[in-house]
Amino acid sequence: MEWWMILLLLFSALGVLIVIGMPVAFAFLSVNLGAIFIMQGGGRAFHSLVLGMYDAVSSFTLLPIALFVLMGEILWHSNLAFRALDVLDKLLGRLTGRLSILTVATGTMFSSLSGSTMANTALLGTMLLPEMQRRGYRSPMSIGPILGSGGLAMMIPPSSLAVILAAVGKLSIGKILIGALIPGLIMAVLYLGYIVIRCRMQPHLTPAYDIESVPLREKLIGVVKYLLPLGVIVFLVTGVIVIGVATPTEAAALGCFGSMVMAAAYGGLSVASLKKALMGTVQISVMMLTILASALVFSQVLAYSGASRDMLEYVLTLAIEPLVVVILMQLVVLLLGMFMEQVAIMLIMLPIYIPVINALGLDPIWYGVLMLINLQMALTTPPFGMLLFVMKGVAPKGTTMREIYMAGMPFLACDFIALVTVLLVPATVTFLPGLFQ
C-alpha cells in the first residue's frame, strides 16, 4: 500500500473518532489497536503496545507537567493571584483603557505562574470581566484582551503543553521553554499596542471613570509585599533554567516548593485549598499523560508502517525552498485549528513534521516554538477554539458566540504578526537558548 494511503486511512479514522466526540486519548488508542491488529496481527504486538505506553509516561522528563500544574493550582486556590491583581490595578492609576491593559499585564504575569491556558482564561474572565462590563467596557476591549492574554500560558514558561510538545518531538524541554519566552513577550506587546491605539481611535469602547487615588507609599508596599515574591517564583521556574543550574524537572519542583512556602507565609495554605490543588493537579495531569502515551505509540505505529519514512523521502525530492515547506506545514496546522483541539493537532502532526524539519536542516527548537504560536492561535480560532468556549462559560448571560468570535479576531491578527516575525527572524527563538548552551 502506498504511503499516502496509509496516512490517509490512519488520519481519517482518527479524525472521525474525534469529530464524533470520542476523547482524544481513546481515539488514539483505538486507532493504535486497529492498526497493530491489521499490520502485526495482534498477539504479542498488543503486549508491546502496553509496554510502549508505560515507557511513554514513566519518563523522568515528563514530571514537570504535573509539577507545573500543581504550582499554578496552589497559587490560584491560596488567593495569592488575586492579591497580585489588586496591586497591578493600583499601579495603572487613571491610564486610558486601564482595565484592558491590566488584563494583558495580569495574563502575562499569571502565564509565568501556571501552564494552563484554560485556567488562565477562566481566572481572568471571572476576576476582570464583571468589573469591565460594569464600567461600560465594550466586548472588543473586555472579552478580546482576556482571550488573547489567556492563551499566553502556552507560550510563557512554565507551559505544560510546551513540555508535551518537546516530549513528542524528542526535543530539549529546557530549550523549548526558554525559546518561547521572547515570542510570548512579543505577543503581549502587540496586544498592548493594539489596545492603546484602538482606545485612542475609539474612546467609547473604554469609558473613563473616576477612581480612588492611591498614595505612592501604598503602591510600593503592595509591590514589595505581593509582586516581588511572585517574581522569586518566576525565577525559581525560569531563571534557574536560563542560567543552567537546574533541569526543567528540578525547576518545576523548586517552583512548587516556592509556591507552597509563599502560600503558607500569607496564610493561604489550608487543608481545603491544598486538597483542591492536588485534586485539580491529578485530573489535569492524568488527562495530559494519557493523551501523550497514546500519541507516542501512534508515532511508533507510523514508523512501523513505513509511511512517515516514505513521506519524508518524497518531501526531500520536491524542488521547493525549505521555508515554503514550513509555511505549508503551518497552513495545515492553522486549518486544523479551526476544527480540532490543539493537543490533538500537536500529537497528530509532530511525529510527521519533526523528521521533515530535521531532514531539511532547520532548527527543530525554532520550529517547535513556531508551532506553539500556531497552536495558541488555534485556541481562539472559530468555530471550535477551546478558549472561545471557556470564555462563553464565564461570560455574563446573554453573551453570544458571535460576539466572542469578533472580540477575539484582532488579537488573532496580533498572533499572526508574531508568527510571521518568528518565521522570518529565527533569532527571536534561538537567542536565549544559545546564550546558555
How would you explain this protein's 3D organization?
The protein has helices at about 5-20, 25-40, 45-55, 65-75, 80-90, 100-110, 115-135, 140-150, 160-170, 175-180, 180-200, 215-240, 250-265, 270-305, 305-315, 320-335, 340-360, 365-380, 385-395, 400-425, 425-435. By secondary structure, it is an all-alpha fold. The chain has one domain (about 5-435). Helix 2 (about 25-40) runs parallel beside helix 14 (about 270-305) and helix 7 (about 115-135) runs antiparallel to helix 8 (about 140-150). The longest helix has about 35 residues, at about 270-305.
Descriptors:
mainly alpha; 21 helices; 437 residues
What's the short story on this structure?
The protein has 437 residues and is mainly α.
SSE map:
Blueprint: H1 3-19, H2 24-40, H3 44-57, H4 63-77, H5 80-92, H6 98-111, H7 117-134, H8 139-150, H9 160-169, H10 173-179, H11 181-201, H12 216-242, H13 248-265, H14 271-305, H15 307-317, H16 322-337, H17 342-359, H18 364-378, H19 386-394, H20 401-424, H21 427-435
Helix pairs in contact: 1-2, 1-15, 2-14, 3-14, 4-9, 4-13, 4-14, 5-6, 5-12, 6-7, 6-8, 6-11, 7-8, 7-19, 8-11, 8-20, 9-17, 10-21, 11-20, 12-13, 14-17, 15-17, 16-17, 16-18, 17-18, 18-20, 19-20
Following the backbone from N to C, one meets helices and strands in this order, namely: HHHHHHHHHHHHHHHHHHHHH
Structural class per helix/strand content? mainly alpha
Major pleated sheet: none
Helix content: over 70%
Q: How many angstroms does the end-to-end distance come to?
A: 44 Å
Total helical elements: 21
Please give the domain count.
1
Low-confidence stretches: none
What radius of gyration results from the CA coordinates? 22 Å
The average pLDDT score comes to 81
The count of β-strands is 0
Shape: globular
The share of residues in extended strands comes to: under 5%
